[in-house]
Amino acid sequence: MNLTQAPTLETSRLILRGPEPQDIAPTIAFLLDRERSEGFGSSPNRGEAWRWFALNVGHWHIHGYGYFTIEMKDSGETAGIAGIWNPEGWPEPELGWALYAGFEGRGIAYEAAARARRYAYEDLGFSTLTSNIVPGNTRSVALAERLGAWFEREYENIHMGHDLLYRHPAPGADDGRDDDGSVEAYA
Amino acid sequence: MTTLTLHIPEVKSGDLILRTICEDDLDQLAAFYAGTRSQFVGGPLSRADCWRLIAGNLGHWALRGFGMWVIADRGTGNPLGICGFIFREGWDEPELGWQVWDGYEGRGIAYRAAHAARTHGAAHFGLDGVISYIDPANTRSQALAERLGARFERDGTLLGTPCQVWRHPKSGEVAA
Looking at beta carbons, which residues of chain B come within 8 Å of A46? Predict the structure, then answer.
């Protein structure tokens, strides 16, 4: 069953694909885990979490992009989400990411976000991207910086409140790393 | 940019058409949800939350194979409201819902749209004898449910909020 027309992307360890019904349960579990999803935007109950899942599917249909599901190549497990988010009221299209329980600390978010960014630049034709990060979310700040993004300004997010806006390097301003985070060795 | 690839049927009935909701409907949806008449259907809501309603409804169609349409004037194309089926997480079963936007009440639009949606749902979605959740204070919707041949079934709750459950007749049943 294809809920969207999202393409399937690959990195060395990951598949990035559109949201599918088997992602509903792990996505709801993530959104109900307040500590884990606080910086992303947690849901107060199962009903709201389901609606977020449907919202992401509809976001793909309206914009032609949205959050990919991150799937582990080796196990097929749903590891999280990464993609481009741009609902009404957003300052600009955002590169976002979130890992589900048990998938942190392995560079998965970096690998997925870098691939999604490359997709936005090369396939969607974006000329710039931002990431919106809630103050205090030091892990996401560290990842944004590892992706080469820099703090640009503070602003009020219509959904998240006080927020930090990070700016990603433009297409072509390669930071010398592959999608898997390794530095290219040039002879 | 719209790259909508969902297969949502159009339903024509008299001078009305039920069609896919889209971003262009945001202004009128937001106007309705800014007003007090939206209190019985989850309002008031901000413009940003109304956009999320639109995207969520498209996702609902993808996930369930049915959802809510925009009710439009078949001649002019003007959107007049929303009608169709809702079956989100937390719903006991699929629901037939409706709302008519400001300036279009009192013309039987909700009745004709709900009737057309109900007939289509029974014929094409396997949704026959559905319910409508109605706020206990929403006497206009209760009157419309009666006119549609639905019967009050029980007092229930939806997502923790008290509401009435009305049961629609099946397609073969003659409305009392």
Answer: 89-90
CA distance B115 to B18: 11
The parent domain of residue A64 ranges over 9-126
Q: Regarding beta strands B16-19 and B151-158, do their DSSP bridges make them parallel or antiparallel, or are they unpaired?
A: unpaired
What pLDDT, on the 0 to 100 scale, is given for residue B144?
A: 97
Distance CA B43, CA B135 (A): 12
How far apart are the C-alpha atoms of B86 and B95, rounded to whole Å?
5
The string of pLDDT tens digits covering residues B100-140 is 999 999 999 999 999 999 999 999 999 999 999 999 999 99
Residues of A in contact with B52 (CB under 8 A): 51, 55, 87-88
Count structural domains, chain A.
1
**pLDDT for residue B6:** 87
Give B134 to chain A, closest Cα distance, Å: 18
Backbone angles phi, psi at A55, to 5 degrees: -60, -45
Q: Let me know if residue A76 belongs to a domain.
A: yes
Across the range A130-149, mean pLDDT stands at 97
pTM comes to 0.94
Which domains does chain B possess? 11-128 (3.40.630.30)
Q: Which of B3, B60, B89 sits opposite A64 (nearest CB)?
A: B3
